[in-house]
Amino acid sequence: MNTLLETKDLRIEFPAGDGKWAEALCGVDLSLDPGEVLGIVGESGSGKSIAMMALLQLLPKGARVTGSARFKGKELIGMAPSRIRQLRGKSIGCVFQDPLSAFNSVLRIGDQIAEAITLHDRSISKRAALKEAERLFELVAIPQPAKRVSQYPHEFSGGMRQRAMIAMALANRPELLIADEPTTALDVTVQAQILDLLRDLRKDLGIGLVLITHDLGVVAGLADKIAVMYGGRIVERGTTDDVFYHTAHPYTAGLIGAVPSLDGDGPLQQIDGTPPSIFNRPAGCSFHPRCSYTQPACQAGVPSLMNTGHTDCACHFPLVKPRAEVAE
Ligand SMILES: Nc1ncnc2c1ncn2[C@@H]1O[C@H](COP(=O)(O)OP(=O)(O)O)[C@@H](O)[C@H]1O
Ligand SMILES: [Mg+2]
């Protein structure tokens, strides 16, 4: 089976003034097979969004991207903008945190979805595209789809708008869906409904899903595998079970501590301190100033990913002993 998405040593730099560059993504290796769900998890500023924006050439002008990102074997980095536009919204669908800004507020939602369809397939009539928008609304469980397609974005609740956004992302039957914090703006009940929807879609349509979130709890029941990011690097990755039950990185352990327990008992544990700025990254392991296991050696060098027999973990003193270096 061909890999759906594979990044190798993906790096992103932003201009830092005086001709200098600041590295925001420091060599990220990810892979996703067709139909798989990859959760990318980490606090705000860890590089989750820019990594995905780099694939789709959505970064602001001036950003420098190096390394490789292949979609079904095709290199995306440096791909001609016209070809990337073909992929975007067709083979690769995107869902973002704020669907209100993704829709044009003065156009009916159905028309916007229909336009997304006819943009990529000129042979489809407007009428047929509107019918397809209705079918998509049904697919994402929006009640009264025939009525809803002729409404405007402000007539939708937050949860319904997110469903409509997902319908739009699915309009051209993508093979890969990138969902960046799709539930962050929603209340807990609606959040659970959207996650259920993504789970069903993955099962029914067999699409690959990259689910970006700062909340490990969100990916726990949905992702096959997880990449934990900190300061522009992957610090731990593995199957969801291994990341939860054979946690090797103190940062991952901290994030798991921050997941409310199901019975609702006990206070939430916090990771003290704040994530580093790309312009002023701590020496060595950039998590060391916040890590309760830190030792002097942590400041000496950036740890590389080592395999523990369960997860790949980048830590000088992992909670599970490493066995082998990870071949890149
Ligand atoms: N246009 C930009 N110029 C400079 N730095 C940026 C720009 N966009 C993002 N960054 C930096 O890149 C880092 C990663 O950002 P982002 O991917 O948005 O984080 P996340 O999605 O994990 O919260 C952040 O530290 C942010 O400050
Ligand atoms: Mg983000």
Description:
This protein has 328 residues and is an alpha/beta fold. It has a single domain (5-91, 174-325), classed as P-loop containing nucleotide triphosphate hydrolases (Rossmann fold, 3-Layer(aba) Sandwich), CATH 3.40.50. Helix content is 30%, strand content 22%. The strands form two sheets. It has a nine-stranded mixed beta sheet with strand order 6-7-8-3-9-10-12-11-13. Strands 2-1-4-5 form a four-stranded antiparallel beta sheet, with helices on one face. A hairpin with a 2-residue loop joins strand 9 and strand 10. Helix 4 (109-120) packs across helix 5 (126-139) and helix 5 (126-139) crosses helix 7. The longest helix has 18 residues, at 188-205. The mean pLDDT is 92. Magnesium ion is lined by residues 48-49, 180. Magnesium ion binds next to helix 1.
Write the layout of secondary structure elements.
Blueprint: E1 5-15, E2 21-32, E3 37-41, H1 48-55, E4 64-71, E5 74-75, H2 81-87, E6 92-95, H3 99-102, H4 109-120, H5 126-139, H6 145-148, H7 158-169, E7 176-180, H8 188-205, E8 208-213, H9 216-220, E9 225-230, E10 233-239, H10 240-245, H11 250-257, E11 306-307, E12 312-313, E13 324-325
Parallel strand pairs: 3-8, 3-9, 6-7, 7-8
Antiparallel strand pairs: 1-2, 1-4, 4-5, 9-10, 10-12, 11-12, 11-13
The structure holds adenosine-5'-diphosphate and magnesium ion (MG).
